[in-house]
Amino acid sequence: MMENAARPETSDGPGMMRRGSNTGRSIATALVDRAGETLLMIRQELALLRAELREKFSRTGGGTTALGAGALIAVSGWLALLASGVIGLAAVMPAWLAALIVGLVLSAIGAALLYIGKRRSDMHSLLSRRSLRDGEETRIRERFR
Prior knowledge:
Elements: H1 2-6, E1 9-11, E2 17-19, H2 27-90, H3 95-120, H4 123-126, H5 129-143
C-alpha cells in the first residue's frame, strides 16, 4: 500500500493518465505529434525528389540540346545533298525536270517508309498474343450465352 501511495495514479480527464512525477500525454496529443512528423517527413522527401529530378534533368538537358543540334545539322546536310543531286541532273536536263524527278523519288521513298512503319506499328502487334487469344475466347463465350 505504501508503494501505491508513493506513486498514485491520477487522471486529468479523458484519455489523460499520469503516474507519479512523469508528465503524461494524451493519445490525441501523441497522434497530432505523429501527424506533424509524418507531414514533415513527406515534405522532406518531396524536396529531395525535386532536387534529384532537377539534377537528372539538368544532365539530360545538355544531351537533349546536343541531340537536337545534331539532328538539325544532319537535316541541313541532307538538304545540301538533295540540292547537289538536282544541280547534277540539271546538267543533262532542264532544272525544273531535275527538281521534279528528285522530289518524286524522295516522296515515293517517304511514302513507302510510312506505309511500312504503319504496318509494323499496328495495334494488334502491340497486344500480346495471349491477350488477343483471351479476348477472342471471351467474345466466343458471349456469343453462345
